Amino acid sequence: MSNNLPKVAWIGLGIMGSPMSENLIKAGYSVTGYTLEQDKIDRLVAAGGTGASSIADAVEDADVVITMVPASPQVEAIAYGPDGILENAKRGALLVDMSSITPQTSVDLAKNAAEKGIRVLDAPVSGGEAGAIEAVLSIMVGGEQADFDAAKPLLEALGKTIVLCGPHGSGQTVKAANQLIVAVNIQACAEAVVFLEKSGVDLTAALDVLNGGLAGSTVLTRKKDNFLKRDFAPGFRIDLHHKDMGIVTDAARNVGAALPVGAVVAQLVASLRAQGDGGLDHSALLRSVERLSGSQV
């Protein structure tokens, strides 16, 4: 292992964090990980990483700290307080938060970290579990150019499209726009699926030809099998998309942008969650269209 690579601490080893951290190990980085479930830490160790007993233990020697947790409250919980990242990471460390959170949380984190001499990038991702495993994620980054340049080689082990979008919080804003487009796209696909099936068309054939034309999309390519098989094992849970639709509607309201269709889809995501489908993949928006169309789901 080449010793000149930065030492990495990884906090948050979930559906995304586990495969991403393993891709860094494959790229030759030394990775020390911490997460709430011991079996996830064991998985990292089996892949060649090092387990930590706490956040403080994970970050104390790290040159780069990467975080991948569900939402703003978790980012604040791991960053702040006596046992958090800011109190325990060394001065000059680079904190790369890859969670999807509110732009304001990212702005505040960068400001508070700067007081400790810690540099921050917000670097949320798109591409889901498959993109994480295949290391083809799209990574939208907010922060300083110099910090982005320093992080880029490491991010290249995790994703394919890596873009600095502007100052702190900009990565989160672009991610929010991403989640808006994805939800509306899944909803449109779901409506088409129900329409096609009720019309008695061969659904596999229909989706293949649609995906070859202007209606084609990465969403349809990735979610086609979910629709065909009614397989809603989560790559990205409705619960998390619900959180993200809250972020985008709130942020849009703050800047005075109207999201008429986004607001409707946000309500459909919320209703799916209220019906107990929050743990399913976001392609389960299909279930909501089926219910509205009179099917027993």
Automatic annotation (TrEMBL):
Molecular functions (GO terms): 2-hydroxy-3-oxopropionate reductase activity; NAD binding; NADP binding
One BP annotation, GO: glyoxylate metabolic process
Entry superkingdom: Bacteria
3-hydroxyisobutyrate dehydrogenase-like NAD-binding domain residues: 169-287
Keyword terms: NAD, Oxidoreductase
Signal peptide: none
InterPro entries per UniProt: 6-PGluconate_DH-like_C_sf, 6PGD_dom2, 6PGDH_NADP-bd, HIBADH-like_NADP-bd, HIBADH-related, NAD(P)-bd_dom_sf, Tartro_sem_red
Segments forming domain 6-phosphogluconate dehydrogenase NADP-binding: 7-166
Residues annotated as the enzyme's active site: K175
Family named by the database record: Belongs to the HIBADH-related family.
PANTHER family named among the record's database cross-references: 3-HYDROXYISOBUTYRATE DEHYDROGENASE-LIKE 1, MITOCHONDRIAL-RELATED
Protein name according to UniProt: 2-hydroxy-3-oxopropionate reductase
